[in-house]
Amino acid sequence: MTKSQLSSFNWKIAGKAGEGVMVVAKMLAMICKRHGLNAFNYLEYPSLIKGGHQTGQVLASFGPAKCQKKDLDLLVTLGGAGLTEHARELTKDSLVIYNQDAGPLDKTKQQQFKSRLVKLPLTTLAKQTTGAVQSANMGVLGVSVYFLGLNTKIAQQVIKDEFVGKTESVIEDNLKTFMAGFKAGQKLGQPIRQINKKPDNKILLTGNEAVGLGALAGGVQFYSAYPMTPATGLLHYLAQMQDKYPLVVKHAEDEIGAINHALGASFAGVRAMTGTSGGGFALMVEGLALASLAEIPLVILEAQRKGPATGLPTWTEQADLSFVLTAGHGDTQQVVLTPGTVAEHFELTKLAFDLADKYQLPVIILSDKLMLESHQTMKKPEIVQTHQAQSLAKDLPQDDSYRRYLVTKSGLSPRSLPGQAHGLQLTNSYEHDEFGFATELADQTQAQVEKRARKLEALAQEMPRPYLLGPKKVKVTLVGWGSTINLLTQLIENQADQADSKSPLINAICLPAVWPFPSSAFVKLVKSARRLVMVEGNQSGQAEKLIRQETGLIMTDHIRRYDGRPFYVEDIKLFLKKGRMTSHKRHSPPPRRGGIQE
Amino acid sequence: MTHNPFKSPIAPTWCPGCGDFVILRSLQTALVDSGFKPAETVLCYGIGCSGNMADFNLSYGFHGLHGRSLANAIGIKLANHHLQVAVIVGDGDGYGEGLNHLIALARGNHDVTVIVHNNSRYSLTTGQSSPTTIKGTKTKSTPQGVLEQAFNPIATCLATEATFVARAYTGQPAQLTKIIQAGFEHKGFALIDVIQYCPTFNQKQDHAWFSERVYDLKEAGHDAGDKLKAMQLAQEKDRIPLGIFYQDLSSPPYHAQVSRLDKKTLIDQSSTKVNLTQAMVNFD
């Protein structure tokens, strides 16, 4: 085992809802962060509160740790389930710690996999140590910290921090069970990893929290939402921030109310945001069209989950892209950002507020359950963040000749705010004249439609650009957007230190923003590509179609997943190894014609 | 009213004889008499004949979507609670499409005055039944007669803890003006249901029809502090009480209960500089 392999691992806990599976996974990821490791913690859970199978999975490394990997180094099962469900994730090098209190292990099942298996009475351990079974999950943490060669002092501090505000005895019990688990591990064998602490300049947070942090950095002052997985985490985070920042959070009566509260607050002059998942966004669409026509700045988090309809509420998908791009009746203007890493969630949310303010339109952050509910490390951002209010009307003429929807070359018309003298205006959902009064005149209508459309031309220059990862000359170029960027980053960064002769050399093009589509930048990037493979989490190839629509480019092939699960690194490796591509022809380049300027 | 700064340069486009003219005049009189300034007043409008009033007033205005202007008002008031915020909607707007928002305003006691043009018809869409159309009435959309019972806005708002519930009638403009003014003065949510004649699509409920039925609550000796009595009066079918059914003078409005807004309005707390230290405590 190389040195870098010895200090990286892929760990999983499996148990029942209510057993504290998710908290242990988060704490292990935090322990990793405080060792200076990069970490990614992916959670799977059913849509219920007690019972049912749950998992938490932490990939940690001093190298890249951006997404979920299938092959496990250490699996700990807490409840009865775990072994059969995860047998395919085990290799001959895996170690399994089985909670024998959950029932005897079926011998035939045990023979199905080749991994080393040790049994530990994790429930009894907690009961003997504290008199109760609740802290059994801390036993899992203890035995995991032991086998992964992590520092106990760091782990103990993470436990204290996690339970801050609880009684002394609760903290004491959790620490005791943690140590009992650690010591039980010592009796079972040698650690499988050895991790020495390095300087820690990172933070660990979910995509939802990164969006919230980015919103605060961008000056959010009003957030209204109706709870819906997987956007609820943002509502919870910002609600907690109300007493620390100049922010009001409103749990709205429904999603229609949520977007309209936010539009009202934005009209009155504060930076406003709403958030929901696909079903809630469907309800918000008429409000989106209002924001576009009445030119009201608004930031929206659209947190994709497996649809359509109620679908798989707690599972992931990237299938709302086409819907979001065309949401809103009529010729609407909206921006669609598709952050990949947690760091991009932070940066692009901040940017979303600036774009919404400056261009006076809705900006959608399109993410998904995978990134919004997973924890990922990112470099600590600048503590002091600044932004500028960019579209407000100043020095209004004393003769009340101010025009809210003044037709300008750039399409931008400065916005007066209620309370401002000489700035009276009507923000109007009807087509309107320059003052805001309703109009049905053809020339005024056309002038306003074109004015709004012009805004996107300047805005396109400020959009995040697609970027290339990996070497320039390769056989296969993967293309991805949103959460899939993490998978592509992991593959490319691993490729550098794990040369695998069976796999063709690859690079990747990542799209952190898709509308307005960055056609010329994208076309420039694909110029030297030989075979383009689209990787996306939907059945119908929504981004692939978008690229074809905007550039005329036809991909060689695609990898799609739409079973509620995210892509695993191994899925892509298998595809590349087996050469399962349906065509080995070079992709069809964009036709040479007007429209795409390079 | 000597000088009316709320008068817009655009002339109303309603049908001759429409009650909306009366509501417009009463609204502007109440705004002036209350001492409000156009720059500090936000009028929100829904969609319908009532919403067309957006062009006929001069103030800060938000002409939103059908039913949704009620929800816009909540955000406006929370962003800047120094503004005077009123919502102009119709019966389809406020009692149909936007009913959940109306209840949210009432339950939250948001400091917003809601004036509902209630003519029991969808008139801008040429006369279909509305939530307040009397059961059995034949309209274009209900040729066999409406099968639903009429919606009772007064009882609904009382049941959802509204702190000011009143009804006025366009045939009695002086009382309408006074009630709108009382609604403005009320610290909290105020529902003003304004019953009116639609001369084009509801000729049956004309001024003679209303005159036979309306009576003044105050003259009848009703105590606006008596909620149970108000609920009883809201159930009257044969006669139509006018005036303030109920007013709760003690409950604080929503924004006054938000600790963040204790000292300053939200917009007055805006800053272009943010320190993220406290936002990252749990991430490090």
Largest sheet of chain A: 8 strands, mixed
Q: Label the structural class of chain B.
A: alpha/beta
Number of helices of chain A: 20
Query: What is the average of the pLDDT values of chain B?
Result: 97
State the CATH topology of chain B: Rossmann fold
* Rg of chain A, nearest Å: 26 Å
Report the helical percentage of chain A.
25-40%
Give the CATH H-level superfamily of chain B.
Thiamin diphosphate (ThDP)-binding fold, Pyr/PP domains
Helix content of chain B: 25-40%
Low-confidence stretches of chain B: none
Integer tally of domains of chain A: 4
Strand order of the biggest β-sheet of chain A: 6-5-4-1-3-2-14-7
How does the overall form of chain A come out from the CA principal axes? globular
Q: Outline the biggest β-sheet of chain B.
A: 8 strands, mixed
> Cα-atom Rg of chain B, whole angstroms?
20 Å
CATH class of chain B: Alpha Beta
What's the oligomerization state? heterodimer
Can you describe this structure?
- The complex is a heterodimer of chains A (598) and B (284).
- Chain A is of the alpha/beta class and 598 residues long.
- Chain A folds into four domains: 3-200, Pyruvate-ferredoxin Oxidoreductase, domain 3, CATH 3.40.920.10; 204-379, 3-Layer(aba) Sandwich (Rossmann fold); 392-464, no CATH class; 467-578, Rossmann fold (3-Layer(aba) Sandwich), CATH 3.40.50.
- Chain A contains 20 helices and 22 strands.
- Chain A has an eight-stranded mixed β-sheet with strand order 6-5-4-1-3-2-14-7.
- In chain A, helix 14 (342-359) links the parallel strand 12 (335-337) and strand 13 (362-368).
- In chain A, helix 11 (255-267) runs parallel beside helix 12.
- Chain A starts with a helix and ends in a 20-residue tail after the last helix.
- In chain A, 55% of the residues are buried.
- The model of chain A is unreliable at 593-598 (pLDDT under 50).
- Chain B has 284 residues and is of the alpha/beta class.
- Chain B has a single domain, classed as Rossmann fold (3-Layer(aba) Sandwich).
- Helix content of chain B is 27%, strand content 18%.
- Chain B has helices at residues 20-33, 69-79, 91-97, 99-108, 153-159, 173-185, 207-213, 227-234; strands at residues 41-45, 60-63, 84-90, 113-118, 121-122, 128-129, 164-169, 190-195, 214-216, 240-247, 273-275.
- Chain B has an eight-stranded mixed β-sheet, with helices on both faces. A two-stranded antiparallel ribbon of chain B has the order 5-6.
- In chain B, strand 5 and strand 6 form a beta hairpin.
- Chain B is globular and about 70 Å long.
- The relative contact order of chain B is 0.13.
- The model of chain B has no long low-confidence stretch (mean pLDDT 97).
- At the A-B interface, strand 7, helix 9, helix 11, helix 12 and strand 15 of A face strand 2, helix 2, helix 4 and strand 11 of B.
- Strand 16 of chain A pairs parallel with strand 2 (60-63) of chain B, so a sheet runs across the interface.
